[in-house]
Amino acid sequence: MENSMAGESSHSEMNNGGLYIYSQEKLEEGGRWYFSRKEIEENSPSKQDGIDLKKEAYLRKSYCTFLQDLGMRLKVPQVTIATAIIFCHRFFLRQSHAKNDRRTIATVCMFLAGKVEETPRPLKDVILVSYEIIHKKDPEAVQRIKQKEVYEQQKEIILLGERVVLATLGFHFNLLHPYKPLVDAIKKFKVAQNALAQVAWNFVNDGYGKLLILVYIPFFPVSS
């Protein structure tokens, strides 16, 4: 399975019936961020600014791909990447794509996710790698971002963006990730085929790029 899962942020346990449960506090905190697909689509700030659902879906997929690339280059665990994606999703539930650059917000979310998941990367590294990805078609970008003036400008943007993201998220960092329940389910069912386990893993990762992670709380029923 690609990337490690160190830093799993979900506080959960399995009861005697084999059902994955989360603490009441965890559910109440996380439940503030789960909505029906209809609620998400009808109340979209981006839609109110003239961005249709198809375009918004494209933008969502775009920042998810960007975060996956950024996270892999920074060598952070998959759960940190997933946390950054959720932070980004939550941000754009309340803010419009028309008024916020998705890749800037995504960069902020990766920096923040690293701290939340206790897998931090230096701000300088996050800025340098992000800038290189954003300007990957520009052969001079790698050298340009190393210039003090350019770097300081990007640093100021990211630090300002962090304050905006924190305010938008309301400092709610408790997340319910499906990774640990998935691994425990695979162990319980004694799934020996690596291919099958990888399919399940990929299915979960794909869900982060869509509305699924905003609609469904990740419970995994594990029957005896």
UniProtKB/TrEMBL annotation:
Q: Which domain of life is it from?
A: Eukaryota
Which Gene3D superfamilies does the UniProt record give?
A: Cyclin-like
Q: What is this protein called?
A: B-like cyclin
Q: Which residues form the Cyclin-like domain?
A: 65-167
Species of the source: Populus davidiana
Q: A GO biological process this protein is involved in?
A: regulation of transcription by RNA polymerase II
On subunit structure and binding partners, the annotation says: Interacts with the CDC2 protein kinase to form a serine/threonine kinase holoenzyme complex also known as maturation promoting factor (MPF). The cyclin subunit imparts substrate specificity to the complex.
Matching entries from Pfam families are given as: Cyclin_N
Q: Which residues form a coiled coil?
A: none
Record's keyword annotation contains Transcription: no
Q: Which UniProt keywords apply?
A: Cell cycle, Cell division, Cyclin
Q: What family does this chain come from, according to its entry?
A: Belongs to the cyclin family. Cyclin T subfamily.
The UniProt record lists the keyword Cell cycle = yes
For this UniProt entry, the molecular function terms from Gene Ontology, in alphabetical order, are: cyclin-dependent protein serine/threonine kinase regulator activity
